[in-house]
Design brief:
Oligomer: single chain
Order of helices and strands: HHHHEEHHEEEEEE
Number of helices: 6
Strand order of the largest sheet: 3-8-4-5-6-7
Number of strands: 8
Length: 283
């Protein structure tokens, strides 16, 4: 007997042929599956699947639309800006108009006040003028009485003071007497306001006689005559011949008509009221 005979053998029991065959089939199937999977994996590894997103192509039409939209936006912005400027201008204009209106009202009030003051002054001047005319008339009446009372001593003076104008001289006398009461204005030539030479020039122009415009020239426009030989229509002057500062027209009966000053206007007065320096006869 062998010395190892009592030791249990460690050899595994034999498997049957059917078991081996079954296990071999299973193994083969698994291997086949793995092989297919491996092959599929290799194929997938060789050709990876990718996904792409197609972006829209910027065509000419789309570009035009974008540009048009940008233009519209810009135009809208410009329109808003223009409207804002107009609103600001309108507000400024309204403010200026309000200020102008206030200034106009202020000026209107001032002008009204001035007009009222001028009207008051004019009324006062008219009242003063009326009073002075009354005084002049009284003086003229007195002068006429004195002249009549002294007429016996001078037949020449009597003839002069009572002479009656005829023809063109009468027309000149009628013209100046019709202006009595008109206003005196320096440089005035009518029809409702005069200065002394303007009245005399207009009176003679009414009968077709052209006289110089100023007193100095009118005082030498005709033949010099003495104050004791006056006839209606003669031009009276105050100052020297050629340097006279005032003129009037003798209307007869020791009276003259002249545009005296701004206080009296055109008056009819006695020679004694303001004795002239000389006289010239044109007609």
């Amino acid at each position: 007997m062998s010395h190892t005979a009592h030791i249990r053998s460690h050899r595994k029991p034999r498997r049957s042929a059917s078991t081996i065959a079954m296990r071999a089939g299973v193994a083969g199937g698994v291997l086949s599956t793995l092989a297919v999977a491996g092959a599929s994996g290799s194929a997938n590894a060789a050709e990876p699947v990718t996904q792409t997103l197609e972006l829209p192509t910027l065509t000419a039409d789309l570009a035009a639309q974008v540009a048009q939209s940008a233009d519209v936006t810009q135009q809208a912005a410009a329109s808003y800006e223009l409207q804002a400027e107009r609103d600001a201008a309108a507000a400024k204009a309204a403010k200026e108009a309000k200020a102008d209106l206030a200034e106009a009202k202020k000026k209107a009030a001032e002008e009204k006040k001035k007009a009222e003051e001028a009207a008051r002054k004019a009324a006062a001047e008219r009242a003063s003028r009326s009073a002075e005319r009354a005084t002049l008339s009284a003086s003229a009446d007195t002068g006429s009485s004195d002249s009549s009372g002294s007429s016996a001593g001078s037949s020449t003076s009597t003839s002069t003071s009572t002479s009656t104008a005829t023809g063109s001289a009468a027309a000149v006398v009628a013209f100046v007497q019709s202006q009595v009461g008109d206003a005196y204005v320096s440089g005035g030539t009518g029809p409702n306001s005069w200065d002394c030479s303007g009245l005399v020039q207009a009176a003679f122009k009414s009968v077709g006689v052209d006289l110089p415009r100023v007193s100095q020239s009118q005082s030498t426009a005709g033949t010099q005559v003495g104050l004791d030989n006056l006839q209606p229509g003669d031009i009276l002057y105050w100052g020297g011949a050629g340097s006279a500062y005032h003129v009037g027209v003798y209307v007869g009966d020791g009276m003259f008509v002249g545009a005296q000053n701004s206080s009296t206007g055109v008056v009819k007065a006695s020679l004694s009221y303001d004795p002239p320096s000389g006289a010239v006869r044109v007609l």
